[in-house]
Amino acid sequence: MQKLAQTLMWLMLGSLGITKEDLNWRGPKKEVAAGSSSAAIQLNHYPACPDPDRAMGLAPHTDSTLLTILHQSNTSGLQVLRDDGTRWVTVPPIRGGLVVHIGDLLHILSNGLCPSVVHRAVVNRDRNRISIAYLHGPPSNVRISPVQKLVGPSQPPLYRAVTWNEYLGTKAKHFNKALSSVRLCAAAPINGLVDAKDQNNNNNNAVKVG
Ligand SMILES: O=C(O)CCC(=O)C(=O)O
Fold this sequence. Notes:
5-stranded mixed beta sheet; binds 2-oxoglutaric acid; alpha+beta; single chain; globular; Jelly Rolls; 210 residues; 5 helices
């Protein structure tokens, strides 16, 4: 799983022209190999719910990871919020398939070019559901900040440096405002990019499902 996550991350960063040489990862005392990782597994169980419209499995959120690789059992429940924030799209389970979510740390590392995905889990009237999330991140004390190569006079760094540890604390405190709380500029300097999370979090439950 670690290899898969690292390969996917390098493919994504590679598509932005970023190589290992461009990542300058530092721990508290010394340099750390670019792309080295730590991880956790999260097991989710959603019991069947007789009135699913009145319950939420997992509230809308983004992950605090670089990437999350998710396996869902054969009951659907995962929904992602479209980029324009207008509706929820169900991600049906595919036998043998895995879902990959971009997390907030990759959002920060890519200076917003790889936006993290807002998602949630809804419950099912008749069936239990299980999902297993592989949470892939950097070593917990490495400072993650926008890659220098993606930053310039017309593309200022949008986020300050954070460690995974620190960001988890920020997430616990500010939840869906965590990404905005480490943001350096409120404006939208990159191609009109706005923090999707800022726009969407006001009323995430009010959008259409489809
Ligand atoms: O159960 C799911 O499909 C979503 C799980 C999830 O979002 C998470 O573990 O953060």
